[in-house]
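Obj.: predict assembly geometry.
Materials: sequence records (below).
Method: joint structure prediction, all chains together.
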Amino acid sequence: MLATRTALLHVFLFVPIAYLLAFVGFPIVYNVIMSVQEVNLGNIADLVRPFVGLDNYREVMADASFRKVFINSLVFVGVNVVAQVSIGLGLAMFFAQRFPGASFLRGLLLASWMLPALVVGALWKWMFATEYGVANFVLRALGLIGSPVHWLSDPAVALTSVTIANIWFGMPFSMILIAAALTSVPLELYEAAALDGAGATARFRYITLPAIRPALLAIACLVTIYTMRAFDLIFAMTQGGPLDASNVLPLLSYQFSFQQFQFGVGSAIGTFAFVIVFGVALVYVRTLKKEGGE
Amino acid sequence: MLKQLALALAGTVCFALTPASAQTKTVTLWHPFTLETDMIYGGIKSFNESQSEYKIDARIVPGPQIATELIKAIATGSVPDLVTLDNPVVASFSAQGTLTDLTDLVSKSTYIKPNVYFEGPWASGLWKSKIYAVPRDANTLALCYNADMFKAKGLDPNNPPKTWSELSAAAEKLKDPAKNVYGFGFSAVQGEEGVFQWLPFLHQAGGSVSKLNTPEAAEALKFWADMVKNGTASKDVINQRQYEVTNTFMAGNSAMVLCGPWELPRLQTDAKFDWKLALLPVKDGKNIKASALGGYDWVVPKGAQQVNGAFKFIEFMSNPKILNEGWATGRLAPRNDVVVQNPLWPQAYSIYREQLQSARARGPHPQWPDISKAIQTAMQEALTGTKPADQALAEAAKKIEPILAKTPL
Amino acid sequence: MKQPRFRRLGALPLAGIPHAVFATAFVLLYLFPIYWMFISGLKSTAEIFANPPTFVPRQPTLASFEYIFLRENVLRYLRNSLAIAIPVTVLTLLLGSMGAYAMSRLRGRLVDVALVLVLLLQVFPEALLATPMFIIFKSLGILNTFAAVILATASKTLSFALVILRPMFRQVPYELEEASFVDGCTPLQTFRLIVLPIMRVPLIVVGTLSFVQAYGQFVYAMTLMSQQELQPATVGIYSFVGAEYADWHRVMAFSSIFVLPILVLFLFLQRRIVAGLTAGALK
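Observations (raw C-alpha cells):
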C-alpha cells in the first residue's frame, strides 16, 4: 500500500511539473538563449543567431536607466511586500472578530483584486490626474495639501503613486490568504492563553504570529513574485516615466524588446529578474525548512 | 520527391475540404482603427463585394500593440498578409528585410503613382530606393484654441497667435490658476507621441534631429520647459498622451493645445464651447514653417501568403474615392490629387491641408526608436527640471551621433 | 459549534456594532475607486471633467454604456472570456490539487527542486513568454483555439495554485489517510474521497482566484488567437484604451461592464468562501 502511495504521489508531482516545464520552461529557455545572442528584427525568425556571450548583459549593466530601474524594482517590491502583509495581517485579525457583517465586508474588499490590472492602472491614472483628479480634490478639501500633487509627473512622486495603486490592488488578496492561515491556529491555544491571563498583545506575539509565520512567509514570497512582474498597472499609469522614475524590470525588458527592438538586451533583463527571484525562492525554501514546519 | 508529392497531395486534400478557398482567397489584415466610421470599414465592405477573388479578413489590434504583435508574428513565421503601421516605425521593419518589396507591384499600379504622393509620407515607405510601404493616410498637428476663452480674456478669437512670442503672450494671458486653466497644452509623454509633438518646434527653431547640441535645438526645448516652469503649461504634460491633452482642452483646463485632425470627431460631439484651429505659430525672426508628419502605412510582411491580394486591397484603398472618405474621421489623404469637396469642418480641413505642406517625416531610419528614445529622455529631463535643456540635448546628441554615423538620416 | 476565534464581542449582537460601523466605513472608503469607476461611466462628457468633481452624478446618463454596447460586441466578448476562464479554473484545480498534495506528502530534495521551479516559472513577464508560447502552440496545431489560450493561461494560475495549496494540504492529518487505508481504500480513493472533500474550501478559494486571473488575461489571448470572434473582453478593453482616442467615461463604462459579471459572481460566492474560512477550513 505504501509503495503504491509513493508511486501515486510521484505521478501527482510529475504531471503538473511536466506541464509547467513544457509550457513555461521552454519559453524561459528560449529567452535565456536570446539573451546571449544578437537578435534583431532581421533574424528573429531564425533559429541560429550570432552568439555574443555576455555582451547583452554588459550592455544592461552599463545602461544608466537599468541601475535606476533595478533600484526602483527593489523599492517597489519591498514596500509592497511589507505594506501588503502588515496591512493584510492587521485587517485579517480585525475581521476575524465576530461582529455583524464581518465576513461579508471582508469578502467585499477583495473586489479590488478582481479588476484587471490595466483597468486598475487606468482608473488610478485618472484619479491621480493633477487638475481634475479626485485624489487632489479630496486631499485639498481636507486641507492635507496646499498645492496639487503631481502624482504621476513628478519624478520624486511617481514611484510612490504606482506603489499606492499596486498596494490597493494586491493587499486584499494577501489579507484573504492571511485570514485563511489564521483559521488554522488551534483554538485550544487561545483558550489556554486566556486562562493564563495573556493579553491581546501577548496572544498575538506568542500564539498567532508563530503559528502563521510559515504562511506569512509564503505570502510574502508570493507578493514578491507577483510585484516583481508587475507590468500592466505601471504600463497604464506612467509607462515607467517620468525619466524611468516609476519603471520596473519587466516593463524595461518589454521596452527594450518591443519598443527599441533590442531583443537580446530585453531578454537579458528578463533573465536578470529571473536570477533575483531564484535567490528569493531559495531563501524561501530554506526558511521553510528552518521553521521546522517542514 | 516523395515528400513533395505528399505535400502536394495534402495541399489538394485541404483545398477540397475548404470549398470557399477554391475561389475566394482570404487576405488577413491587421489594423488599429476602432471608429466604425473609419474609411477602412467601408473600404473592406465594398472591396469584398466588388470582386470574388479575395476576401479581406480584418482583425483589430490595439494601436500600441500592433508593432509588438507584428514582431511576434515575424518571430514565429505566421505573418498576416497586410498590416497598417505607424509610419516612423516602418523603416525599422523594412531595413531588416522583414517586409515584402512592393516596388514592382507599384510600378504596374494604376492608382499608386509615387509622384502624386506627398514627399514625407511616401519617404516613410522607402528603404534603399525600394518601396516597402504605401501611405494610407496622413496627419499633422495644428493649434486648437478655445475661442470663448479668448473672448473672455480680451483676445481676438479671429486672430490666433502666429509667432512663438504671440503664443506665449496669449498663453500667459489665458492661464487662470484659480480655475485650473492652463494657457497651452501639449504632449511630452515618454513615447513616440511626445517626440511627434515637439519636433515641429525643433524644426521651427532651425534645429534638426541630427544636430541636437545646437543653440537652436536648446531654444526649442527651453520654450516648452519654460512654459511648464512658469505654470503656463501643466507639469502633467510629461505624462499625458495626445488624447489626454485633448481631454484637458475639452474639459476647459487648457485654452490652447496641439491637436491632430483625428480628434475632430470627438471635439465636434463633446466640446461644449466654440473651438477653432490655427496654423502652428512660427519662431520670431526665423519664420520656418514646420509641423510633424504622422499617419499609417500599408505594409505586406515578408512571407505573406496573399501578396497580390493584399496589394489589390492597398490599391483599392488608395483610390481617391475611398481616400475622400478618410476625412470623416479626420484622416487626410497622403496625396495631392485628393481634395475633399464640401468637407466636414471646412476651417479645420483647410488648416490641416495647409499645415501638411510643411509637415516633416520622422526618419525614415531603421533605428528611429533609439533616436526617439534619446529625444524623449532629453524632453523629460528638461521638462521636469532635472537638467537644463542644452545639457539634456547635448547628451541626447551623444547617443544619436553613433547611430547616425552608421546610417545617416 | 462555532467558536469565536479571538475575542467574543459579547453575546448580544449590539456589542459588535461599533466594529461593524468602522468596518463598513473602511470598506466603503477602500472601494471608493470602484464606485468612482461606475459613476464615471454614468456621467456626461461635461460632467466628467467638472471641477469640483461630483460625487453623485448630477444627471446620470446611460449614454456611455449604450455607446459601448452598440459599438462593441460585449456579449461575445464576455462569452469568450468565460470560455477561457472556466476551463482554466478546472485545469488549475485538477493539476494544482494533485501537485500540491504530492508536494505536501513527499519529502526530500525532489520537492524542494519542484517548489523552486514552480516559483521561478512565474517570473518572466508574459509579453516575453508569448512568442515562444506561440511556437509551441503552432507546432501543436492549436493556434486560434481557446485550447491554446487555456493551456497558456493555466500555466500561470497553476504555479500560483501549487504555492497556495501546498501548505493547506499539509494541514490534512496523515492519520485520516491511515484510517482510510485501514478501511481498504486505495491511495487514489483516499485522495478523492477523503483528502479532496476536506480541502473543499481552499479549493474554492484557489478556484475563484484562478478564475479571476484567467478572466483578466490579455497577452496570451492577444497573441495566440488572431480571430476577432474568439477574443475575450480584455482584448476589447485594450483596443479601446490603447486607441488614439479614449474618453474616460467610456473607458470606465466599458470597464464597469467587464468587471460586473465577476463582481456579481464574486459577491455570490464570497459568502461561501468566507463563511467556510471562518468556520475553519479543516474541521
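Conclusions so far: Chain A has a mean pLDDT of 86.
To do: check interface contacts against the pulldown list.
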